[in-house]
């Protein structure tokens, strides 16, 4: 089994190395290398999942380096959580790469694009495999580096390069907390091997502090409040990148870290309360912003932030299996929506939803699969998102987190509304403008991934439903008891979602609700359009002071430091100029200087000896 696990990881790494060397020469043929490697990795991931389902569990580690008592180990861990993530990461990456073959057609740097996709996937696989926190941190940073390269792939656009830098810098704040947590954990526990740490009984306050520091890293990577601001701007990257980053890879890394470190969080229960509160704030806040977004990818970006908040909410209230389950279902319906958006953008050459309309008649495959993804996102049964989201709500209700439960239900209403607002505007009604005049269905290489993801968005949730005896929860739980079905919560959630869809229908498909029901001059509308002014807050709270300090440092360097250095040079130069005047070239002058010098020396000596 270890050989197979190694191959799963090494194939995308080898694909990266090959494409770095030959990608420019091969052009679009580079896709065959990357896709072929991912096909094999996905097939072996299925084999690994079946191995774990059969009761298998394996872990291997070896010492990479040793410094005194500190040993840096490298290893591979295969258990229920990592096996599930292997399959999710590889299948989503595979489908995104297939879609990219059509979407990126004609791009001059397509070889480099596939190279980065391969290494980005490899970094995520390494993170999933990791049995210790040093390895997780290395993979964590690898994910960050290659996400930077992919978001800024079209670096010729200023907005793309700025978005890449913003994503890299904002996540660094979270990573700083994660790094401090690792140092503190090693000081306290003397090891960074997860199995050894989890077997310990750390003091509650210490465990809570370390867990919260770890959560800081998760807040950055999974775009949780208040470090969520990078993710919407990351839409400047190619749409397939958005689908990959915002489904089962980068943004899932933070949720995976909390899930993998759950025993540590349980040692300090207050840390779970922090996770639940931040997750709830994020879910509700992002859903409200999505209500007013008009860029098709930005709407989906804020929905991603909101759904990640749901996952954190589930983990925080103790619904471990539900949080992980939602991570899995989201990894199918969210790339479906992003790739569907890419298909639309490919057809109409615009991202503004009010440039679209009536596309359902011209793009039937895209519209049907997008509708399936939208129903899963809105939480309508039997689509995937319904089962996982409702388990999170049931967990919040059962654990007594009533306020969190109420905000979770409100977020259901908002999610259903903004999702079908998007669907009704883009695919129904009359065309707006001329962007869709020549729209047509995307080629098969782009439609096929949509159909496959649509199938999973429809069926994947059933493995965690009561009809399957909550099979997923039993597989993934690992001692964390799955929540029993709460049909009251299910019914309430479903009704609220249908109400949200109904409001969207009345607002955008009929004249029941007037178009100006919410004035654009309204304070709350402006608040949402400007995303709660978070970017402005960071600009004036961090960027402006940083620029002021930088300008002061520059002035000090130029005026004081450079002035001191240049001043010494100026004094030396002036002294040299003075000495130059006595170099006349006449021997009699030099003799005079010698006599004067001897006289001065004689007078000084006599004075020192005290003869006068």
UniProtKB/TrEMBL annotation:
Residues 130-415 form the NADH:quinone oxidoreductase/Mrp antiporter transmembrane domain. Keywords: Membrane, Transmembrane, Transmembrane helix. Gene3D superfamilies: 1.20.5.2700. Residues 64-114 form the NADH-Ubiquinone oxidoreductase (complex I) chain 5 N-terminal domain. GO terms for biological process: ATP synthesis coupled electron transport; electron transport coupled proton transport. Pfam families: Proton_antipo_M, Proton_antipo_N. GO terms for molecular function: NADH dehydrogenase (ubiquinone) activity; NADH dehydrogenase activity. GO terms for cellular component: endomembrane system; membrane. Its main location: membrane. It is a multi-pass membrane protein. It is found in: Endomembrane system; Membrane. It comes from the Bacteria. The chain crosses the membrane at residues 33-53, 84-104, 111-130, 136-155, 167-188, 208-231, 243-262, 274-296, 308-325, 331-348, 368-387, 402-429, 450-467, 487-506, 590-610. PANTHER family: NADH-UBIQUINONE OXIDOREDUCTASE CHAIN 5 (PTHR42829:SF2). NCBIfam families: NDH_I_L (TIGR01974), PRK06590.1 (NF005141). This is NADH-quinone oxidoreductase subunit L. It comes from Candidatus Aquicultor secundus.
């Amino acid at each position: 089994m270890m050989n197979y696990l190694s191959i799963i990881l090494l194939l995308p790494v080898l694909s990266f190395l090959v494409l770095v060397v030959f990608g420019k020469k091969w052009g679009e043929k580079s896709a065959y290398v990357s896709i072929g490697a991912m096909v094999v990795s996905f097939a072996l991931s299925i084999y690994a999942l079946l191995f774990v389902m059969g009761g298998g569990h394996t872990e291997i580690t070896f010492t990479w380096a040793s410094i005194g008592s500190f040993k840096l180990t490298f290893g591979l861990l295969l258990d229920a959580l990592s096996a599930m993530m292997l399959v999710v990461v590889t299948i989503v990456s595979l489908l995104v790469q297939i879609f990219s073959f059509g979407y990126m057609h004609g791009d001059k740097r397509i070889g480099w694009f596939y190279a980065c996709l391969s290494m980005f996937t490899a970094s995520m696989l390494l993170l999933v495999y990791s049995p210790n926190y040093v390895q997780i941190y290395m993979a964590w940073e690898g994910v960050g580096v290659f996400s930077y390269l992919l978001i800024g792939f079209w670096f010729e656009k200023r907005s793309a390069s700025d978005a890449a830098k913003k994503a890299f810098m904002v996540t660094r704040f979270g990573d700083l907390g994660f790094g401090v947590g690792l140092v503190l954990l090693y000081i306290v526990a003397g090891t960074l091997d997860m199995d050894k740490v989890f077997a310990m009984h750390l003091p509650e306050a210490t465990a809570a502090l370390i867990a919260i520091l770890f959560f800081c890293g998760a807040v950055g990577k999974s775009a949780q409040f208040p470090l969520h601001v990078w993710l919407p701007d990351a839409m400047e990257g190619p749409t397939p990148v958005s689908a990959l980053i915002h489904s089962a890879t980068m943004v899932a890394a933070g949720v995976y870290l909390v899930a993998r470190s759950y025993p540590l969080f349980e040692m300090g229960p207050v840390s779970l309360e922090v996770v639940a509160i931040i997750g709830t704030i994020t879910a509700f806040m992002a859903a409200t912003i999505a209500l007013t977004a008009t860029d098709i990818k930005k709407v989906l970006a804020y929905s991603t932030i909101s759904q990640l908040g749901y996952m954190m909410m589930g983990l925080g209230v103790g619904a471990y299996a539900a949080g992980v389950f939602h991570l899995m279902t989201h990894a199918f319906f969210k790339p479906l929506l992003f790739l569907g958006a890419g298909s639309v953008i490919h057809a109409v050459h615009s991202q503004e939803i009010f440039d679209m309309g009536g596309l359902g008649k011209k793009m039937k495959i895209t519209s049907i699969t997008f509708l399936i993804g939208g129903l899963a996102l809105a939480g309508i049964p039997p689509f995937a998102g319904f089962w996982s989201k409702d388990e999170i709500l049931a967990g919040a209700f059962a654990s007594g987190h009533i306020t969190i439960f109420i905000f979770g239900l409100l977020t259901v209403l908002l999610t259903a509304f903004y999702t079908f607002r998007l669907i009704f505007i883009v695919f129904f009604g009359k065309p707006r403008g001329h962007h869709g005049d020549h729209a047509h269905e995307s080629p098969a290489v782009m439609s096929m991934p949509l159909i496959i993801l649509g199938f999973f968005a429809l069926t994947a949730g059933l493995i965690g439903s009561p009809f399957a005896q909550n099979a997923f929860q039993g597989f993934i739980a690992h001692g964390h008891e799955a929540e029993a079905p709460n049909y009251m919560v299910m019914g309430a959630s479903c009704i609220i979602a249908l109400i949200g869809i109904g409001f969207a229908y009345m607002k955008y498909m009929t004249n029941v609700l007037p178009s100006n029901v919410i004035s654009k001059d309204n304070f709350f509308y402006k608040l949402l359009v400007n995303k709660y002014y978070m970017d402005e807050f960071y600009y004036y709270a961090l960027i402006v002071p940083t620029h002021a300090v930088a300008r002061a440092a520059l002035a000090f360097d130029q005026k004081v430091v450079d002035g001191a250095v240049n001043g010494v040079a100026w004094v030396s130069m002036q002294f040299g100029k003075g000495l130059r005047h006595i170099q006349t070239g006449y021997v009699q002058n030099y003799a005079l200087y010698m006599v004067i010098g001897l006289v001065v020396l004689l007078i000084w000596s006599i004075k020192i000896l005290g003869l006068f």
